[in-house]
Design brief:
The protein contains 14 helices and 10 strands. It is an alpha/beta fold and 335 residues long.
Length: 335
């Protein structure tokens, strides 16, 4: 049994990864990548088989954000020509939900820019979510920024199943990325979502000049927060943002990061999120031997690949898309 399989076996026996083991994954020889992904797949297969969860983003409000996040084209300091608009109407949200349903996508993610939602914006989302639930029964994830407890309760009551608020980076690296809110502000919103009864979704952006120890700390922080779903984004540096021109990632390193997150969070949904097309490139299929979830379609201000390419990739791998009906059954079991 090779080194990676031994570590994977330990994870399956509920042993905690040591810091040296975690670092060895990120520093593993590139020629070991197939062995590492095979070991990751043993953990993934134990808890998720060959199922893949599909997610789709609706950019419900774009730009107009007062925050100064260095990676984001929508921030107050970005010099990026993007479409800016206030929160879309119910009909637009319903149209997006229909498309998700027609494509057999189980989770519909309603995302709005800004520091946090106004009560009026929460009302608009609530009204749409109630109709989406009645019409399509999709799993709904909302991502609206910093959240107040009473807003969280309203979203939960309307039928929002999951709330996303990414930690984005490690606590020690946070001030290098943004100073308009704190790391603890983000953690507090995750706690508020959990207390309301919504499933917590929180992830990271890798490639923002962090150290390998930062990456390990991110994975462990999300384990401590008990995030049910963990989107792993890889920086797609956008011209006009403070991180313009940063290009630290290789496809093989991205695979090592996905493996690390699977080893540290064995039972959780690990999603390959933004930047997978430009960073993993031709190695995208290998990522699903560690991850069990992907976004389909476009992201917030960058394009994804065609839906048909994603479905073909999954078919070629012999993986199975979790159907909307299966998603509904798993939701019912959770409740």
């Amino acid at each position: 049994m090779n080194k990676w399989m031994k570590i994977a076996q330990g994870v399956l026996e509920e042993q905690e990864l040591t810091n040296n083991e975690a670092l060895s994954i990120l520093e593993s020889p590139d020629e070991d990548i197939l062995l590492l992904m095979h070991a990751s797949f043993q953990i993934r297969k134990r808890f998720f088989g060959k199922k893949v969860k599909l997610n789709m983003i609706m950019n419900a409000k774009s730009g107009l954000c007062p925050e100064n996040c260095g990676y984001c084209a929508q921030s107050s300091i970005a010099q990026v020509p993007i479409d800016s608009y206030r929160i879309v109407d119910k009909e637009t949200l319903l149209k997006g939900a229909k498309r998700a349903h027609d494509l057999n996508i189980g989770t519909y993610c309603i995302v709005a820019s800004g520091r946090g939602p106004s009560n009026k914006e929460v009302n608009q989302v609530v009204e749409a979510v109630e109709e989406i639930k009645d019409t399509y029964g999709l799993k709904i994830c909302a991502c609206l920024g910093l959240l107040k407890p009473e807003q969280a309760d309203r979203l939960k009551e309307a039928g929002v199943d999951r709330y996303n608020h990414n930690i984005n980076t490690s606590k020690s690296n946070h001030s290098n990325i943004t100073t308009s809110h704190t790391y603890d502000d983000r953690v507090n919103t995750i706690d508020v979502a959990k207390e309301s009864g919504m499933s917590p979704c929180s992830g990271v952006i890798v490639g923002m000049k962090e150290t390998k120890q930062d990456v390990i700390d991110m994975a462990r922080s999300l384990k401590a927060l008990d995030a049910d779903s963990i989107p792993v984004n890889f920086l797609h540096a956008i011209d006009g943002t403070p991180l313009e021109g940063v290009n630290e990632l290789t496809p093989v390193y991205c695979l090592k990061v996905l493996a690390l997150f699977r080893f540290i969070n064995p039972t959780k949904e690990i999603r390959i999120a933004g930047g997978r097309e430009v960073n993993l490139r031709s190695l995208q299929p290998l990522g699903l031997y560690a991850a069990n979830s992907i976004f389909v379609g476009d992201y917030l201000t960058t394009e994804g690949q065609e839906d048909t390419e994603d479905h073909q990739m999954l078919q070629d791998l012999g993986f199975e898309v979790e159907s909307v009906q299966e998603m509904k059954e798993s939701l019912a079991a959770e409740k």
